Amino acid sequence: MRIAMLTGGGDCPGLNAVIRAVTRRGGAEYGWEVYGIRNGWRGLVEDDLKLLGPSAVSGILHQGGTIIGTSRTNPFKIEGDADRVMATVRGRGIDAVVAIGGEDTLGVANRLHAEFGLQVVGVPKTIDNDIGGTDYTFGFDTAVSVATEAVDRLHSTAESHNRVMVVEVMGRHTGWIAVMSGIAGGADAILIPEFPLTVEDVCDLVEQRAARGKHFSIVVVSEGTALTWRSGEGQTILSSDQLDAFGHVRLGGVGAVLAKEIERMTGFDARVTILGYTQRGGTPTAHDRVLATRYGVKAAEMVKEGRWGMMAALRGDAIVEVPLAEALVELKTVPLELYEIAQTFFG
Q: How far is CA 53 from CA 17, 95, 287, in A?
């Protein structure tokens, strides 16, 4: 049997652990030829693959990024590219594709399976932890750990200078990283897309702390949060009007706007720290290495059993399979119960 795998979308800690697990289980145990598709779906559009073996995946478990590259290529964006994908699959004699990615990458996988009959299985990947059908995605734990460490370090600076420190973290549609790192780091306010506080709410929390003798605050905000005011005004922060192949605009800048408003409305010195790509780069945590490895092994088993159109998922402590179509119905958002826990410690 000959299989190929790709990594699509943003890079993510743990991708190499999945690649290693699929290669080792599929090659060493099942005797398959395992190929890496370079740069996501683009590799199938351009017929750019490389053979993977034990030596290719040796020593990559702890490495960040992905050894086969990634991109945000959407083969349904340009007419004829989906046909080119299938031509590469047929021409190379590929029996199955393992797609490792988020909602966009897996959405392409599901569409190719439904419309072209591609024999594909999926592995959920995103630091945002917003894919449906699974309790957690690998990469999320690493991102939260990085953000939490940043919050911890900023506490000392905030207290020393009597400042409000605004920490902008990733999270386009959901606030999982913000909530979890905010709780873990003891943030005094957390703004997320699901339950956004008004700018005045945040300023009130800052002033309440000052009235108790706490002349510093830590505010964590997700990059995709739309700022709102009690007047009913709202502002979505975008750093670029250009769209990627999946129609997404580049986000960034909400932290700077929020810090400026806090300073204007309260008089406190406010500064912003944008964590950006540091959250998705570097060495994965032990948790993410293990979870990604388990996902990779499960993906190989699903291929062996011909479970096409399915995705590996974590349910409780078990790795199970769920239909791709089911997992992609809607994003997994932060539940109100979790946000209310965070609110207990605001101010």
A: 14, 17, 25
